[in-house]
Write a structure and sequence with these properties.
Shape: elongated
Strand content: under 5%
Order of helices and strands: HH
Oligomer: single chain
Number of helices: 2
Length: about 70
């Protein structure tokens, strides 16, 4: 009977370590009012050379299709 008890406690420890990241995420998510990673920079508001180039390329292609 001692083997079953030891196995039970070992399984409880393994489960605690396995679900600890989930518990931490839930703790952070509820602590920060739905923002688990705090304030992050809003996407699309900061200027970027890649975004500017992509916008110019899209406008150029749209212009080509509009002429046809």
């Amino acid at each position: 009977m001692g083997g079953v008890t030891e196995l039970f406690f070992i399984m409880i420890l393994i489960a605690a370590f396995a679900f600890a990241p989930l518990g931490y995420f839930i703790y952070r998510f509820t602590k920060e009012s739905g923002k688990p990673f705090g304030e992050i920079e809003p996407h699309g508001d900061s200027p970027s050379a890649v975004n500017d180039f992509a916008e110019k390329a899209i406008k150029y292609v749209q212009g080509l299709f509009a002429k046809k």
